[in-house]
């Protein structure tokens, strides 16, 4: 039986594992994707000490750090299908039938990308509809694409795409971007980006692949934009399905409800990172790392009795 | 007039400046010591991505990052003597008569080392009594020293001293250390460290310099320990004198009281790092950086109106 089970291989998961190992706790860390959401940041400029680093490179450094404690940390790449309370702890059920047991749990499952819910979105997923510019930009080199959204990930995504695509439309339903001025300034300086403000998508159309987008109102004389692909970047929702199955409470906005010590309403169950409402609901590398530190310390104190 | 005034040149101050600059805010950052408390960590193993780095080296990376935004960030090394509310913002009074004005303030002043309050402590300060092992260890090479305390900084301090001193006594009033097991294990493996548990210091004695320590009860047959120096590492208190002068409220433990957005009871005044009670009162690089991120975002939102 492990001391701590950590679910999630992103910034919060790895940081929890680093602290857990320094507390000499036998640690099991598992997740679907090494690096988690951190992988999707093409250009990280806000991890203190690293002026400019790629997200996957930063996450690889975190992973190496978490695995630098010898036997103390066991990592597994896989999907956690279920979690249950057992005598003296908790049991994870992994895809493939494997199980893992531990005395305390830290959920660091992050968030999942939000969908638009428009006609054609599901049909053309993977056929021109993408949810990660960093991951898929290269498939659209010298092509025409659109990005939908106005926050950091949308504007950052459009900047990335502008470097490889021939033309990028950035479609946002409001007058102004919610993104950091750092990103808004960058996008305005790109000659091959056309801003389509105060418009929303009504439909994604195509045949074998995406060919055009239908807007709610005409832009530059037409309600249709010809594209080879569309990137949906309209935010994300906290990945709380596993903690909810265990009986953990959510806050009024649907985030995992945790106290000052990052503990949920269930003793021995903690949360850290984008799925929780702490750090003023602000999802950054630094806030995820801070919360993970507090969660691991909380779990250590819990295990001390 | 600056947009943001940041007081403190440690982890929280630099991180606030990085975020502030990315928000395109005109930023002034000032403090007495570059690196702050981060400088005192000889061996940092819990900043994610850096398996083993010296505190001053890590802080230098943070500083370079904060100063990588051109004109946006102005840094000054100096003491802030006073702060006052003015029309539309705040004014800092620096040692030497200089002033700086800004629309919002982030206090990142950290904490100050606690004193024992025993006879001889004040008298021999700088004459064998030190509050920073990392800073002063080298002066005691091949000598005999004592460390007083049982937390991370005491045990880490003893480990550092054991590498240069001939002999180290670690005096702690309890049966067990409060330090991370990582450090407790290290100290037990040092042959030149003698643990003096369940003892307290009654007096620090000497002539021109420290020569011996008087214990409350005998250890190994004597109530006196001959030493060339003593390191006091019994914790620290939040550095809240400036925010208190401005009218900021403290929590029940004397830390700066801040909300979810790191804002104090005074609009436009924020706090981040060791002086605040957030992050469950846990003072780490990661928690300071997380709080600083939230504070800078809070200040940005405040300035937007």
Task: Count all strands of chain A and give the number.
Answer: 17
What is the domain tally of chain A? Answer: 2
CATH fold description of the largest domain in chain A: FAD/NAD(P)-binding domain
Give the helix tally of chain A: 7
* The named CATH superfamily of the largest domain in chain A: FAD/NAD(P)-binding domain
Give helix % range of chain A.
10-25%
Count interface residues per chain for the largest interface.
Answer: A-B, 44 and 44 residues
Which regions of chain A are unreliable across 5 or more consecutive residues at pLDDT < 50? Answer: none
Biggest sheet statistics of chain A:
7 strands, mixed
CATH class of the largest domain in chain A: Alpha Beta
Structural Rg of chain A:
21 Å
Order of helix and strand elements from N to C terminus of chain A: EHEHEEEEEEHEHEHEEEEEEHEH
This entry's quaternary arrangement is homodimer
Gap between N and C termini of chain A: 17 Å
Report the sheet-strand fraction of chain A: 25-35%
Alpha-beta classification of chain A: alpha/beta
Q: Identify the CATH architecture of the largest domain in chain A.
A: 3-Layer(bba) Sandwich
Whole-number mean pLDDT of chain A: 95
Globally, the shape of chain A reads elongated
Description:
Two copies of one chain form a homodimer. In chain A, the strands form four sheets. In chain A, strands 1, 2, 3, 4, 5, 6 and 17 form a seven-stranded mixed beta sheet that branches. In chain A, strands 8-15-9-10-11 form a five-stranded parallel beta sheet, covered by helices on one side. The first copy, chain A, has a three-stranded antiparallel beta sheet with strand order 12-13-14, with no helix packed on it. The longest helix of chain A has 20 residues, at 285-304. The first copy, chain A, has 305 residues and is of the alpha/beta class. The first copy, chain A, has two domains: 2-113 and 236-303, FAD/NAD(P)-binding domain (3-Layer(bba) Sandwich); 129-232, FAD/NAD(P)-binding domain (3-Layer(bba) Sandwich), CATH 3.50.50.60. The first copy, chain A, is built from seven helices and 17 strands. At the A-B interface, α1, α2, α5 and α7 of A face α1, α2, α5 and α7 of B.
């Amino acid at each position: 039986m492990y001391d701590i089970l950590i679910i999630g291989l992103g910034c919060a998961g790895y940081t929890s594992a680093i602290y857990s190992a320094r507390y000499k706790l036998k640690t099991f860390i598992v997740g679907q994707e090494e690096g988690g959401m951190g992988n999707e940041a093409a250009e990280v400029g806000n991890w203190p000490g690293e002026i400019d680093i790629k997200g996957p490179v930063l996450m690889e450094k975190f992973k190496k750090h978490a695995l630098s404690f010898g036997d103390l940390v066991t990592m597994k790449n896989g999907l956690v299908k279920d979690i249950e309370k057992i005598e003296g702890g908790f049991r994870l059920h992994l895809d493939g039938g494997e199980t893992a047991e531990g005395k305390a749990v830290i959920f660091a499952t992050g968030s999942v990308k939000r969908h638009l819910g428009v006609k054609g979105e599901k049909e053309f997923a993977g056929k021109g509809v993408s949810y990660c510019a960093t991951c898929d930009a290269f498939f659209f080199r010298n092509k025409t694409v659109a990005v939908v959204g106005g926050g950091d990930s949308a504007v950052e995504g459009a900047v990335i795409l502008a470097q490889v695509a021939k033309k990028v439309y950035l479609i946002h339903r409001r007058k102004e971007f919610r993104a950091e001025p750092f990103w808004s300034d960058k996008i305005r300086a790109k000659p091959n980006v056309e801003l389509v403000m105060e418009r929303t998508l009504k439909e994604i159309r195509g045949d074998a692949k995406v060919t055009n987008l239908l807007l709610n109102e005409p832009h530059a004389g037409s309600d249709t934009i010809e594209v080879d692909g569309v990137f949906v970047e309209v935010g994300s929702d906290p990945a709380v399905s596993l903690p909810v199955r265990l009986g953990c409470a959510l806050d009024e906005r649907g985030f995992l409800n945790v106290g000052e010590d990052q503990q949920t309403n269930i003793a021995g169950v903690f949360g850290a990172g984008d799925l929780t409402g702490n750090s003023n609901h602000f999802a950054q590398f630094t806030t995820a790392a801070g919360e993970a530190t507090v969660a691991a310390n909380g779990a250590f104190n819990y295990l001390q009795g």
